[in-house]
Write a structure and sequence with these properties.
Elements: E1 17-21, E2 23-24, E3 37-38, H1 40-52, E4 56-57, H2 60-68, E5 77-83, H3 87-100, E6 104-108, H4 131-136, E7 142-146, H5 159-177, E8 183-185, H6 193-201, E9 206-208, E10 222-223, H7 230-235, H8 239-248, H9 252-278
Parallel strand pairs: 1-5, 1-10, 2-3, 4-5, 5-6, 6-7, 8-9
Helix pairs in contact: 1-3, 5-6, 8-9
């Protein structure tokens, strides 16, 4: 049986930051209760801000190389990831990323390719990219990974279900797109020891959670959403946010409290700066 690596979570403080996005543009229904949509304008602004501030984009090879000690990277490095394979990742995000020369990883729920979102009534009309659309993405710098089979939460699943969402999903993605995925992202960011072991045994080089760091098969990520102001986006890249997020990542309620407080603080700061400029 494969032994799943468990590392000191605080090493993540010096690792390349991993940004997590979901949808882009505007929702078809006009509703976005989870703030998953980032507009094209805001996405361009965020990417431009990163590059102007000296942040260097890295691909999955460089990211894995840093963790193995084979690759040295600047302190301000980032890997950009996108969950769910929403159609907007193809139509909007991929061209914008290519224009900036920024590589990325798109995590695909392999059993829903060419279908629609089925894990949330709020987003049930949103389209998942087709196999043909996904096949074209690696040429733009967007690598394909697996996001389970149908976005089922994977905690407490039995062996056959875990196999469906890890090994079988990987085979389905390869059959439909020709891409053999190296990376996995947990739906909802949740996992447990059996889940991490199933992902490792399926042969993935790395897997990603959200604010939880459990070694190479549950790397920490920073969620970027439609609620982020310029100030909150910048703050999410700071060591202070990393410490708060990693501490809160051990309990989802604490994690959401940290996120909400950060966003409230940054919105208040931005409003105060606006009032000062108007005087």
């Amino acid at each position: 049986m494969i032994q799943v690596e468990e590392t000191n979570p605080w090493r993540a403080l010096t690792s390349p930051r991993v940004l997590m996005y979901h949808f882009f543009g505007e929702p078809l229904s006009g509703r976005d209760p989870e703030h998953l949509f980032v507009t094209g304008e805001n996405f361009r602004t965020q990417l431009g801000s990163l590059l102007r501030s000296g942040w260097r984009p890295v691909d999955l090879d460089a990211y894995l190389g840093w963790w193995s000690g084979r690759v040295r990277l600047p302190r301000k490095s980032f890997l950009l990831t996108i969950d769910d394979a929403h159609r907007s990742a193809v139509d909007l995000a991929a061209p914008i990323l290519a224009s900036f020369g920024i590589p990325s990883v798109l995590f695909v729920p392999a059993g829903l390719i060419g279908s629609t979102v089925r894990w949330s009534e709020d987003y049930a009309r949103e389209q998942i990219a087709t196999a043909d659309q996904l096949r074209r993405l690696p040429a733009t710098g967007m690598e394909l990974g697996v996001h389970g089979f149908d976005h089922t939460r994977m905690v407490s699943l039995g062996p056959s279900d875990l196999r469906l969402h890890t090994a079988d999903a990987r085979l389905d993605l390869e059959r439909l797109t020709g891409v053999r995925a190296r990376a996995f992202a947990y739906p909802y960011g949740t996992h447990d020891p059996l889940t991490r072991r199933a992902v490792a045994e399926a042969g993935y080089a790395v897997s990603f959670a959200v604010a939880r760091e459990h070694g190479s098969h549950a790397r920490w990520r920073i969620c970027v959403d439609g609620n982020d102001s310029r100030a909150s986006f910048r703050f999410k890249l700071t060591p202070a946010y990393a410490v708060a997020s990693l501490l809160g990542g051990r309990a989802w309620r604490v994690r959401h409290l940290v996120r909400d407080q950060v966003e409230t603080m940054c919105r208040a700061t931005s409003a105060g700066m606006g009032r000062d400029r108007g005087r």
